[in-house]
Fold this sequence. Notes:
Shape: globular
Helix content: over 70%
Oligomer: single chain
Amino acid sequence: MITKEINIEPLQMKARIGSYVQLIKLRLTLLVVFSAAITFAYAAKGQLKWTELLLMILGGILTTGSANSLNQIIEKDTDKLMHRTQNRPMPTYKLSTAEALTFAIIIGVAGIFILTYYFNLITGILGLFSIISYAFIYTPLKLKSTFAVFVGAIAGAMPPLLGYVAYTNQFGFEPGIMFAIQFIWQFPHFWAIAWVSDEDYKRAGFKLLPSGGGQDLNTAIQIMIYTLFLLPLGLLPSYFGLVGLNSGIVATVCGVLFLAQTFSLMRDCSRKSALKIMFGSFIYLPVVQISYLLDKMP
Length: 298
């Protein structure tokens, strides 16, 4: 009989690469960086250089990946308790704490360097603030207070601000509106996820739902109120002449459809309705941001 040798090393290498991809939460990271990339292109006003955009995306991926990695290092014990996170690299010991921490520091430093060196100091500071606020304030606060959602909303709304400042090297009313839209969007987004994952979060001791953490009408009403705020906010760029009327119409239609989903949750307080809001939030933000970009281009 002829036996065939199997080369285990490439398989092990592939598994380790896969663990690092899990550590940075690649899909979440790409969603976060998408907002920064869209706003960077928005600020360019049709004068976009693709090399600059790619560098900004790379810096954003490394910075966001670092924050997500640190988050998983800190939460390795609570991740063991939740079904959706118990197979992550830290609770399964696919990576050691030292390996994960070294990786997080290296990519974090590299990301901040790219944002600072190729763009400006303000962008680098915003990247550093995002890492600190998400990993070292929001992450531990989830076990103590529902105020964590507010802190997480600030960190989660940084990408459009970062993207705009990376191109212009300045703050202003325009990026402030983009920040405000994404900041308010975070609340129905966060709370819908927390509603859907409530059992898992309770196992870990996370406090993310408002109104005492109940899956009830009070929580549903708060989700509706924050979603309602998106209607006037979404119209501000058109109202102030920053973009045309078309994107204002798109933002309004998307806002109304998003809001309509919250009425179902108020009516039945079901996981199914919360799930629809969660998916609706994933659709609302990129569609509205893309409409602003297309309306801004000459």
